Amino acid sequence: MKRLKILLLSILLAVLSMAAWAGQKPAADLQIVTGEHWVTSSLEQKRAFLFGVGNLLEIEQAMAGDTFDAMRGHSIVPVLLEGLSGTSIADIVIQLDQFYAGQPDQIKRPVIEVLYIEMALPRLGS
Q1: What is the separation of C-alpha 104 from the centre of its chain, rounded to a whole number of angstroms?
Q2: Which backbone phi and psi does 26 adopt, to 5 degrees?
Q3: What is the DSSP letter of 31?
Q4: Around Cβ 123, how many Cβ atoms within 10 Å?
Q5: What is the per-residue pLDDT for 108?
Q6: Which of 48, 46, 72, 49 is nearest to 60 (CA)?
Q7: Residue 114 burial (CB < 10 Å; 0-12/13-18/19+)?
Q8: Closest CA to 3 of 78, 83, 76, 66
Q9: Cβ-contact 17, 51 below 8 angstroms
Q10: Cα separation of 83 and 60, whole Å?
Q11: pLDDT at position 9, please?
Q12: How many CB atoms lie within 10 A of CB 41?
């Protein structure tokens, strides 16, 4: 029952977090958030995006339950959860801002890719 409550709360938080993006230009198709979106977003939108990602990661972990360890090597979820563990949303915002500011040629790279490859993997020694 507790796990179900956590799951429902996480889903609700993810939906509410995504609402912050509603102020952006509507898109006909689902878009991958890139550095172009990131650098033009407000702090609130950046935080909402990261809260949404975090909630989805937590939902995936909760849904996997006892099989979570089997996801290793087959999913980005364990890498992101473990690699970003202990890092605050505020610090991730700063690091992403610095990444895109310092590497303007990488502006088209998806934010989730930067989180995974540039931030989470190095922290795991991968």
Answers
A1: 21
A2: -65, 145
A3: -
A4: 14
A5: 97
A6: 72
A7: buried
A8: 66
A9: yes
A10: 16
A11: 47
A12: 20
Residues of the chain with pLDDT under 50: 4, 7-9, 12-13, 15-17, 19
> What pTM does this model have?
0.74
Length of the chain: 126
Report whether 55 contacts 10 (CB < 8 A). Answer: yes
CB atoms near residue 61 (< 10 Å): 15
- For residue 105, give the amino acid letter: D
Q: Which residues contact 103 (CB under 8 A, 6 or more apart)?
A: none
For residue 125, the SS3 value is: coil
Q: Residue 101 belongs to what H/E stretch? A: helix 89-102
Give the pLDDT confidence score for residue 89 in this predicted structure. Answer: 96
Q: Which residues contact 86 (CB under 8 A, 6 or more apart)?
A: none
User: Taking the mean position of all CA atoms in its chain, how far away is CA 22?
Assistant: 17
Each residue's pLDDT tens digit, 3-38: 545 544 455 445 444 545 555 555 567 789 999 999
CA–CA separation, 37 and 11 (whole Å): 23
